[in-house]
Amino acid sequence: MKRNIRIHLPHGESVSAIIQLPDEAWCMMVLAHGAGVGMDHSFMQQIANRFEKAGIATLRFNFLYMEKGGGRPDLPHVAYNVLRAAIAKAQDYSSKETLPLVGAGKSFGGRMFSQLMSAEELPGVSALVFFGFPLHAPGKPGKERADHLAHVKVPMLFLQGTRDTLAQPDLIKEVTDGLRKATLAVIKEGDHSFHVPKKSGMSDAQVLDDLVELTSTWLRKKLT
């Protein structure tokens, strides 16, 4: 099942969302987009389609700024309201099917999820998945953006490309090694968007397959 829905926010606003619920679903993932693209970006569409084939339901949505046409990303408190509402909407579906609930995000979306879950518990959310955690700005390596991760109480999976200019490989390894609940999965030659050069011998489609397989295997271990 694939359905376009609306997620209602405080103060009468709402954002677009798409839910994909396979017949034999065993997990529900709330999937947040990155800073420069919305829920309809090719990465979001393709990975949601692959998760559906793997039995993982997804609910992807626009943050409020993207719903209004893009531009500067929402301030954290605004993004948090959207995440809370998306989780609540996903629970309407997951509770009917008794599906474990997972938060996930590409870059900005994952970071907003982690910041929110470091400050408060989101009932029912059992794990977090990061598709390219934005550890630092390009050319400005540092680990300060990861300080809050120590306060996240659920297992975390970091999927990171070795050519990611927003997460220097040695630094993201230091971060995940220092977190009791973190697992790092490395995509060789992948950049921040998980594109790989032709010389790698891999295609972007194969990388997407790997991302879904790595995520599915990890979630089955953590949730079952």
Task: Describe this entry's structure for a reader.
By secondary structure, the chain is α/β, with parallel strands linked by helices. Helices cover 35% and strands 23% of the residues. Helix 3 (76-97) crosses helix 4 (108-119). The longest helix has 22 residues, at 76-97. The two termini are 24 Å apart. The mean pLDDT is 95.
Compute the CA-based radius of gyration. 16 Å
Mean pLDDT: 95
Q: Total number of helical segments?
A: 6
Strand order of the largest sheet: 1-2-4-3-5-6-7-8
How many E-type strands? 8
Proportion of residues in extended strands: 15-25%
Q: Report, as a whole number of angstroms, the end-to-end distance.
A: 24 Å
Coarse structural class: alpha/beta
**Low-confidence parts, pLDDT < 50 over ≥5 residues?**
none
Major beta sheet summary = 8 strands, mixed
Give a quick set of tags describing it.
about 220 residues, globular, 8-stranded mixed beta sheet, 8 strands, alpha/beta
Summed up:
Helices cover 35% and strands 23% of the residues.
Topology, pairings included?
Blueprint: E1 2-8, E2 14-20, E3 27-32, H1 42-53, E4 56-61, H2 64-67, H3 76-97, E5 101-106, H4 108-119, E6 125-131, E7 156-161, H5 169-177, E8 182-187, H6 204-223
